[in-house]
Amino acid sequence: MRVAAAVRAAWHFLTQSLLPIAVLTAVIFGSLFFLERTGTAASRREVVVHLSADLLSSASATSLAVPMSEESRNVFAELDGGEDDAFLLSDGNVGSGDVPESALERRVLDAARKVDADSLDAALSDLTAVLAANPHHGSAWFLTGKIYSAREQLEEAAAAYSRAAEFSGGRAKAIPLYNLGCALRDLSRDEAAKDAFLQAIDRRPDYREARLNLALLLSKDPASREEAERAYDQLLRLYPDYSTGYFDRGLLRKAMDSDSLALADFRLAVLHDSLLTKGWIQIARLAEDAGRTDESLDAWYRVVEIDPESTRAWRALLLGLADQNRYEEAVTLGSRAVRIHPDWSAAWYNLGIAASRVERYDEARRAYERAIELEPHDFRPWLNLGVVLARQKRGRDAIRCYEEALAREPGSVSARYNLALERRRAGDLASALIEGERVFRLDPTSKVRRFLRTTAQRLIDRDGEDSAARRILTMTANSEEAGDDSTDDDRDAAPSE
C-alpha cells in the first residue's frame, strides 16, 4: 500500500513539474522496488524526496536566477550537477509539519514560476506557507530574497539571503552569499558586502560574478584601488577572455591615472567582445588624449557601425574628421548621419561645413537650409549659408543671411564683418564703413583695421573728400599702411559641438 502511494506521488510530481523523463521515472520505480524488498520505508521516502529535489533543481535552474549586475550570468546554470553542488531547493529536509516535502517542492516551483511572471504577491504567499511548514527551506528563503530585491526592500532581501545561505551547503552556498553581498552593497554596507563576496569566493573560487563585484566594490574607495586591481588580476587569470573584466579594470586604471594601462585594457575588452560599444568609446577618448588621432577616429567609426543611433559618436567622428581636414570623409559620413537622424540639426550644420570646405556649395547650401528649418533661432547656419551664397556670387542673398544672423546674435563679429565685406563688394562703401567700424570696436585686429583703411580710401578716391572716411583714416593712422586686401575673406562659424 505504501509502495503504491509512493509511486503515485512520484508520478504526480513528474507530470506536475513538466519533466516526464522516462529514464528518471525508471530509476524511481527501480528504487521503490528495491526498497519494497528491503522493507525500509524511511529510506523509500528519502529516495523519492531526493530525486524530486534533483528534478526540481534541473527544471528551475533558469527561472530561479536572481537579477544580478549587467554582466552577470545565470549562476544556477553554471554550477556543476550533483548532490553537493546543486543549490538545495528542498534541502533534503522533511518539514516539521504534516505537509509532505514533495508538496513543498512543488509549491516552491510554482512560486518560482510566479516570480518569473512578476506575480510577486502570489509567489510570496506561497513561500510564506512553505517556510511555515519548513523554516529551513533554503530555496524558499532564496526566492523570498529575490522578491524583496525586486521590490527594492533591501533589508528584507539581505535577511532572506542570509537565511538561504544558512540552510545551504557546499559550493551552492556561494549563490545566496553572492546575492547577500549585492544587497549589502546596495545598502552601502561595504565592509559586510565585501565579507559576503569573499565568503562566496571561498565556497566557489571560480565564481566569476562574485570576483567581479568584489573588485567593483573595492574600486569605490581610492584607498583600496590597488587591492581592487589585484582582484581584477585574479579574475582575469581565471577568465582571460572576459571582456567585462578588462573593461572594468580599464576604468579603475583610468581613475588611477594609468591611462596607457587603461587603454591596453580597453583594447583587450573589445578584442574579446568586438561589439562592446563602451569599450570603443573609451579607446576613442584615451587615444585622442594620447595624440593617437587615427586610432581615435577608427574607434568612433566602430561605435557608429555598432550603434548608428548614437548621436554622441557621430558628433565626435564628424568633428574629429573636420579637425584633421578630412572633409571628403566628413561629407560621406555626414550624409549617412543625416539619413539616420533626419531631424538632427547639428548633423546638417556640420555636413554643410564639410561640403563647403570641399567647395560642394550646392550640398552645403541645402544642408544649412535644412539646419535652419530645424533650428531657426540658431544664428550659425544663417551665417554660414551667407558665406556659401557669397562664394556663389549671390551677394544680395548673402547680405540677407548675414542680417538674419545678426538679428539672432547682434554680437557676432563674423556676421557683421561678412556683412561689411559684402556691402563693399556691392559698392555700398558708406554702409561698409559703418559696419566695419562696429566690427573694429568689437575686434580691433589688424585685418579689420586694414579693411577700414582700404574702404575709406576707396570712398575718398571715388566720391572725393568724405568726413567719415577721413575720420576712419585718422583713427587707424597708427596701423600699417593699407595694402592689397585681396586676402580678406568671409568668416564662417565653427562646427557645432
TrEMBL record:
<dbReference type="Pfam" id="PF00515">
    <property type="entry name" value="TPR_1"/>
</dbReference>
<feature type="transmembrane region" description="Helical">
    <location>
        <begin position="17"/>
        <end position="35"/>
    </location>
</feature>
<feature type="repeat" description="TPR">
    <location>
        <begin position="345"/>
        <end position="378"/>
    </location>
</feature>
<keyword id="KW-0802">TPR repeat</keyword>
<feature type="compositionally biased region" description="Acidic residues">
    <location>
        <begin position="481"/>
        <end position="491"/>
    </location>
</feature>
<feature type="region of interest" description="Disordered">
    <location>
        <begin position="474"/>
        <end position="497"/>
    </location>
</feature>
<dbReference type="Pfam" id="PF13432">
    <property type="entry name" value="TPR_16"/>
</dbReference>
<dbReference type="Pfam" id="PF13181">
    <property type="entry name" value="TPR_8"/>
</dbReference>
<keyword id="KW-0472">Membrane</keyword>
<keyword id="KW-0677">Repeat</keyword>
<feature type="repeat" description="TPR">
    <location>
        <begin position="277"/>
        <end position="310"/>
    </location>
</feature>
<dbReference type="InterPro" id="IPR051685">
    <property type="entry name" value="Ycf3/AcsC/BcsC/TPR_MFPF"/>
</dbReference>
<dbReference type="InterPro" id="IPR019734">
    <property type="entry name" value="TPR_rpt"/>
</dbReference>
<feature type="repeat" description="TPR">
    <location>
        <begin position="138"/>
        <end position="171"/>
    </location>
</feature>
<dbReference type="InterPro" id="IPR011990">
    <property type="entry name" value="TPR-like_helical_dom_sf"/>
</dbReference>
<protein>
    <submittedName>
        <fullName>Tetratricopeptide repeat protein</fullName>
    </submittedName>
</protein>
<keyword id="KW-0812">Transmembrane</keyword>
<keyword id="KW-1133">Transmembrane helix</keyword>
<feature type="repeat" description="TPR">
    <location>
        <begin position="379"/>
        <end position="412"/>
    </location>
</feature>
